[in-house]
Amino acid sequence: MNGKWASRIGLAVFFTAGGITHFTSDRDFASIVPPALPYPLQIVWATGVMELLFAAALLQNRYLPQIGFLLSLYLLAVLPANIYMAVAGISIFMEHVPTWAAWARIPLQFPLIALILWATEAWPLRRAFEFSRA
Asked: How many domains does the chain have?
């Protein structure tokens, strides 16, 4: 098993767990949706579905660079929730989240994005726009 495939499996497990948690702890996730956005619970459910779909897509080879690019954009799109959680000092999953841990989650998004881009061969990004490989 090569490193990219193993990374994709790990990422699929990670996003499957995250997607499921969006339904089992939906109210916790809704609490970190920035208040400027309407319908926080529905946003949480929609992002949960997206994470489950991304997890499944990571395990196939068709359009893999495109999947990696879209998943990277998704992580950037949910970044405001992590920032809001840190700024507002919101605890999640009925536990206090130390301030340092809430802030540490923010820069950790970028190595995660880098891993996704590498594992899906979406880097350099021009590969994400090539459809002839599928």
From this structure: 1
